[in-house]
Amino acid sequence: MKNYILILSLFISTIGVGQLVPAAEENIPFLVTFGKGAPTSFGDDDHCQVFFFSIPEENKKPIYIRIHDPENGGLHDEIVGDADSKTRFSLYGGKGCVSHKDSRSTEPVGEFKSGNLLNTKTFGVDAEYDDKWFTFGPFNPTEGEFSALYGGYVFKVIAEGIVGNDGNLYKYFLSSSPTSNIAVEGANAFTFEYSFRLHDDAKQVSHIYPYIDNKVVSVKQTNFDWDNDGIIVISSIAVVNYRVSVSGDDNKVTSEYIIKEKEKGKSLDIQFRKHPLRPAKNNNVVLYVTNQFGEYLPFFAIPIGGVPQFKAESSATPLD
Questions:
Q1: CA–CA distance, 166 with 181 (Å, rounded to integer)
Q2: Do residues 136 and 249 both lie within one domain?
Q3: In 3-state terms, what secondary structure has residue 201?
Q4: Which helix (H) or strand (E) holds 10?
């Protein structure tokens, strides 16, 4: 119960509105989901991505979940041969939406589609939605599953690449309007496994923010298909530029990081830094984090407690 109260209070105290996914704080261009016919070497290990949206209990107004560029084969997408892929987006709420253990796994198995199916739509190649927005809603916030742990009423969106081998690049926005992106005050978004496209430009650093609650002693980060494209580091209030193990092409690597006491109740900053001397290339990568119990930790688009700032008196692991 103490953890529930702590996280809820941090949700309330976190400055931010929204939510755009990926958020500005993350500096990630797009989420990515490939069709089920794509080899995993393209950078998607399971052709599925699950995201959650949390709406504060005090918000009584209808909400909308908008998807930018949901179609396949357009301006931003990674087309392989003929553009022939399809992506199914499904929205869930109700009991079990996030509380069911399978919904918080990194594998699309078991009852990961737990909760009540509120709406679903499949997109192929469709100029109507190329670089444009599609909207699910309106929904009463109470149609989500209430969770004190995750800061309010929670909805789940599952993106599945059901046909083809192309990569669908897209974004989400939790909005109070069906036709434009108007932020929902105090809302947030989170996932337990992040599949995303990096910037081609090596000067751009991307970030994801796993939340470390008070029971976490150590974490294991697992990254897939990083392509040896540079380095991945952890920064926090206690460390800066702590390097973690990185994967090559189509393989998965895990390494451990011991949590410092002052990092508890805050977010870590996992940074993706491409090699500055290599030619620009597109790269899709997958990453998840578990605690010492093997439980998956959530990445919040707006980091709980704010973006962590290193304190000079703390120990640091410098870059080579």
A1: 27
A2: no
A3: coil
A4: helix 2-13
Write out pLDDT tens, residues 269-317.
999 999 988 887 889 999 999 999 999 999 999 998 889 888 765 444 4
Same domain, 133 and 263: no
Q: What is the per-residue pLDDT across 87-112, written as a single tens digit (0 to 9) for each?
A: 999 999 999 999 999 999 999 999 99
Residue 310 lies in a domain: no
How far apart CA 137 and CA 64 sit, in angstroms, is 5
Encoding tokens for residue 71? 């179609």
Short-list 175, 143, 193, CA closest to 64: 175
Q: Distance between CA atoms of 239 and 312, rounded to whole angstroms?
A: 9
Question: ∠ at Cα 193 (119, 236), nearest 5°?
Answer: 130
Q: Are residues 185 and 215 in the same domain?
A: no
Instruction: Print the domain residue range for 224.
Output: 206-300
Q: Is residue 81 a part of any domain in this protein?
A: yes
Does residue 205 contact residue 273 with C-beta atoms inside 8 Å?
yes
250 and 180 co-located in one domain: no
Q: Which residue has the tokens 């992040």?
A: 194
CA distance 259 to 266: 11
